[in-house]
Amino acid sequence: MKIITSKIFFLIFSLISISTSGQTSITSFPENLQLFIRNEKNVCEVKISGNAANSSFDFVSLKLYKNDSLQMEAISSPNDFKFTIPIIAELSEYTFELNGIKDQNNILIKKSDKILCGDAILLLGQSNMSAISGIDEFNERESDRFMRNFDFFDLSDTTVAKWYTGKKPYAQVGAIGNYLVKNLIDSVHIPFLVINQSAGGANIKWLTERNPTNPFDKKYNYGKMLTKLKNSQILDKIKYMAFLQGEAEAGTWYLDCDEYPEYFDIFIKNIRKDIPGLKK
Predict the structure, then answer these.
(1) How far is CA 108 from CA 10, 13, 78, 112, 280, in A?
(2) Which of 137, 126, 121 is nearest to 184 (CA)?
(3) How many percent of the chain have pLDDT more than 70?
(4) Residue 25 is inside which H or E element, if any?
(5) Does position 58 have pLDDT exceeding 90, yes or no?
(6) 160 vs 264, residue with greater confidence
(7) DSSP annotation string for 31-77
(8) Cα separation, 27 vs 19, whole angstroms
(9) Coil, strand, or helix at residue 157?
(10) Residue 15 pLDDT > 50, yes or no?
């Protein structure tokens, strides 16, 4: 009889949890595996906001964990709650947990794990920059715990991009990207996101192609690149880029080499306009 009673209580509590959390609207919350870009103070500010006015919560609570250890808890009214939580750029993983509080009971609303604060680098070029030779060796020997990738899982479907660790999707970051980011992490001791928009056989003209009225047009490789930077929330924050290209022109008609400076100038102007935060 006690077992039946406990099951009934659990069912009722679960239904209450679904009902109350379902009446909470979240407007800003980190995604699992997301990396935020550090500011000049070596800090990332994570913004969390929403509204639980239609729920029965007395308060909402935001808990921050670092490497599974509770660091802080902030309390707010359920009406239009807003939290700005600073996290330090270091080799640590953060967890954010949003709870509703009703009669001193915590009801989980949303949770995100393995959040990082660090820096990012954009890679662009042709096959050498996206080469997969050495990927399996890297995957076997190295950790990607503090590496991140933000990419389309299926390159033929660019409707949704998501966060991954550096080894996933398979070979999307490329061997150069993996080893470059590993060296950066080992050198400066902060996590790194790498976005690699290189393509085999790409010449400078193809890489420069861009819709002038809508630079985010994913019909073009350039637009796919900007879309990933925007959707990962780093478009106005990313500071570093590496470009490796030129083999396509060197192995074709000489006019391609003659036209290279013109297209390269256009490319640089567009990059500076569309990604204004780049420093190196």
Answers:
(1) 15, 12, 14, 11, 42
(2) 121
(3) 88
(4) strand 25-28
(5) yes
(6) 264
(7) PTT-EEEP-TTSEEEEEEEEE-TTS--SEEEEEEEETTEEEEEEEE-
(8) 19
(9) coil
(10) no
Q: Are 38 and 118 in contact (CB under 8 A)?
A: yes
Q: What is the CA radius of gyration of the chain?
A: 23
pLDDT of amino acid 54: 84
Query: How much is the pLDDT for 253?
Result: 54
DSSP-assigned beta bridge partners for residue 164: 149
Q: Is the Cα dihedral 24, 103, 110, 92 positive or negative?
A: positive
Q: From CA 11, how far away is CA 165, in angstroms rounded?
A: 36
The DSSP-derived string for 74-92 is: EEE-STTEEEEEEEESSS-
Q: Contact 47/84 with Cβ under 8 angstroms?
A: yes
Q: So what's the pLDDT on residue 159?
A: 75
Instruction: Quickly state the pLDDT bin for 11 (edges 50, 70, 90).
Output: very low
Hunting for tokens 């290189």 — which residue is that?
198
Structure token pair of residue 51: 């509204």
- Shortest CA distance to 67 belongs to which of 48, 90, 37, 50? 90
- Per the CB < 8 A criterion, the answer to whether 264 and 124 are in contact is no
